[in-house]
Design brief:
Layout (H helix, E strand, L loop, with lengths): L3 E3 L7 H4 L4 E2 L2 E2 L9 H8 L2 H13 L4 H19 L8 H18 L5 E6 L2 E6 L12 H29 L5 H8 L3 H11 L21 E8 L13 H9 L7 H8 L3 H13 L8 E3 L5 E3 L2 E4 H12 L2 H12 L16 H27 L11 E8 L11 E10 L2 E10 L17 H8 L4 E2 L5 H12 L3 E4 L2 E4 L2 E4 L3 H9 L5 H21 L8 H9 L3 H11 L15 E6 L1
Parallel strand pairs: 9-10, 16-17
Antiparallel strand pairs: 1-6, 2-3, 4-5, 6-10, 7-8, 11-12, 12-17, 13-15, 14-15
Length: about 575
């Protein structure tokens, strides 16, 4: 069982829209200003702003060359859009919103397509290839200024690349890099920080605003294949979440929902249709009953119920941890034929522990099914979704760990490649489901280094990619040789590897724990799961009652010394690659 965790209404980091209006307590010069078309190129020529644009791009690119190209596209798009307006009321907000749209178009590879978005009553036309900038650059000054801008971007591209290679490949200290480049140590630290692909996204609370609708936040997560099958993709609006939550405890008609929310019927009816259809037309968050009323079509609970269900597992966590600790001493993890060098059993346990917990959850689910609900046939779906509701300004955290996996075929010398990553409080996510492995330069570099690769054989651009792969934990670099740092296995040994973990709970002691949990959960399900969702009781067991068991098991195993303490928030822990030649 794998959790794919998605919070709704996580707003983007405001510093990307308004580049640090206050930095270290000092006002920033990039304040709100009205800009006319002929003034935009002068503002874009500011070195500090160019550094921020390049920083934004490098954050989201695989290498400095891609970042330079993305930065150029952003600048050309902004200039093209600005020249089509009489003036821009808030140029910097306009710039950063345009930057995000250009990046989104780049990611989706929507070549030669046009997308129009409204920003402060002005239209920005985003173009992936031809920005039509030539018709606006009709003066020698503007031509010269644009050339200087692109030259500055080239300089930034080289500067960021050099810092990454010197630090992660050459092994130089920050002080040595600063001396070699003739810049301050803080500049080196800043470039290293902004060069990293992994950026923690901040959640900004908007509760102070006076909404007509109730501030309900549904925290969605699920299990299975979410690509094209996740109905929560259609529920990101506040109206959607209010409407769904009102149908949670009792079925309601469109008229009742309209009166309750104070929203005209046509809008309610349209939203109801969307929520019944879902993303694939077959699985929606709402279900229309024969009497014309609507009810929830998935497990939606308040936090108090979620907490009560999880505590059924958690009160037996000390017993479970004792079973794991006793078995841990008996299994021989270091003797396994890994394709990457492994010297620490506690590191290997980051990959095994979630699978041990999923095995336990499966045992509990089977026990509940056979002993307590033998006449109910569980519903089968490609993807199962659940949600916990935060209401009235509450901001509870689910404390779950997710696991996302991707695969590709015919990559280099390999017939099939599979890789997944665990993520949660202690370790951050490398990628999500649907990520394209063949377009990820760091993962491709990882594949090249499975048998070891000398740094001397890499070009400057490849060295930069390798440095990023080292920084995010995919690779290690020792004596000029790059090797995988994550856990790598041959496909033919995968099941045997997992069996090593399963041995820890396939015993009488664990069976007693399973029996006790199953009895309590059966009573809990009978009390809380609605009759029309009873054939999805297994989803409730896994996604509601067992949602935070991996999280709690991780914390308990860290305390017991069964897991290694992660070196960095994003690293090698919990990443597994499986190869088939």
């Amino acid at each position: 069982m794998r959790l794919f965790f998605k919070k709704i209404y996580n707003l983007p980091n405001l510093t990307d829209f308004f580049p640090t209006i206050y930095m270290n307590g000092r006002p920033n010069k990039f304040k709100r200003c009205v800009v006319k078309p002929n003034e935009a190129i002068k503002l874009l020529g500011d070195k500090e702003l160019l550094d921020k644009i390049y920083r934004f791009s490098y954050h989201r690119s695989n290498n400095s060359h891609d970042a330079e190209e993305l930065s150029s596209d952003i600048i050309l798009t902004v200039l093209s859009a600005v020249h089509k307006q009489k003036s821009i009321d808030n140029f910097y907000a306009f710039l950063w919103t345009a930057a995000r749209r250009v990046y989104a178009d780049t990611c989706e590879k929507r070549e030669k397509r046009r997308r129009v978005v409204s920003i402060e009553n002005a239209d920005i036309t985003l173009m992936s290839e031809n920005n039509g900038i030539e018709e606006f650059i009709d003066r020698a000054y503007e031509e010269e200024q644009l050339g200087r801008i692109f030259k500055e971007l080239t300089f930034l591209s080289r500067a960021y690349r050099e810092v990454m290679i010197m630090y992660y490949i050459d092994g130089l200290s920050i002080r040595d890099i600063a001396l070699r480049l003739g810049v301050g140590e803080n500049t080196v630290k800043q470039r290293l920080f902004y060069a990293r692909n992994s950026v923690r996204k901040e959640v900004t609370s908007m509760n102070e605003r006076n909404y007509v609708l109730k501030p309900i936040n549904l925290m969605f997560y699920g299990s299975g294949n979410p690509i094209g099958n996740d109905p929560s993709d259609e529920a990101e609006r506040m109206l959607s979440q209010n409407l769904i939550y009102l149908c949670k405890d009792k079925p309601m008609s469109a008229k009742e929902l309209s009166d309750k929310l104070g929203v005209p019927m046509p809008f309610i009816e349209e939203e109801l249709e969307i929520q019944c259809r879902g993303s694939n037309g077959e699985y929606g968050l709402l279900l229309k009953l024969d009497n014309g009323r609507y009810t929830v079509n998935f497990h939606l609970v308040d936090y108090a119920q979620y907490d009560e269900a999880n505590k059924i597992y958690e009160k037996r966590l000390p017993e479970l941890c004792s079973v794991l600790k006793a078995g841990f001493k008996k299994i021989e993890l270091l003797d396994f034929p890994y394709l990457s060098e492994q010297t620490d059993m506690r590191f290997i346990m980051w990959t095994l522990l979630p699978r041990i917990i999923w095995r336990l959850l499966g045992k509990v689910s089977d026990k509940v099914s056979k002993k307590y609900f033998p006449d109910i046939t569980p519903l089968q779906r490609e993807y199962y979704v659940a949600a916990v509701a935060n209401t009235d300004g509450q901001q509870h955290e689910l404390e779950v760990y997710g696991n996302d996996g991707i695969s590709a075929s015919s990559v280099g010398e390999y017939k099939n490649v599979f890789i997944d990553n665990l993520y949660g409080r202690r370790i951050e996510k490398h990628f999500t489901c649907g990520h394209n492995l063949s377009n990820d330069s760091k993962l491709l570099m990882l594949l090249r280094c499975v048998n070891g690769l000398s740094v001397d054989k890499l070009s400057e651009q490849e060295k930069e990619t390798a440095a990023k792969a080292v920084e995010c934990g995919y690779l290690s670099c020792k004596d000029g040789i790059l090797k995988p740092k994550i856990l790598v296995l041959d496909k033919k040994y995968v099941n045997k590897f997992f069996e090593l973990g399963y041995e820890l709970i396939d015993n009488a002691e664990a069976e007693n724990i399973v029996e006790g949990i199953a009895a309590e959960l059966a009573e809990h399900v009978s009390k809380y799961v609605p009759e029309h969702l009873i054939n999805e009781y297994k989803t409730y067991l896994d996604l509601i009652a067992g949602a935070r068991l991996v999280y709690n098991a991780v914390e308990a195993c860290l305390s017991e010394g069964l897991l290694s303490i992660p070196e960095a928030p994003i690293g090698a822990e919990g990443v597994l690659m499986v190869l088939e030649k």
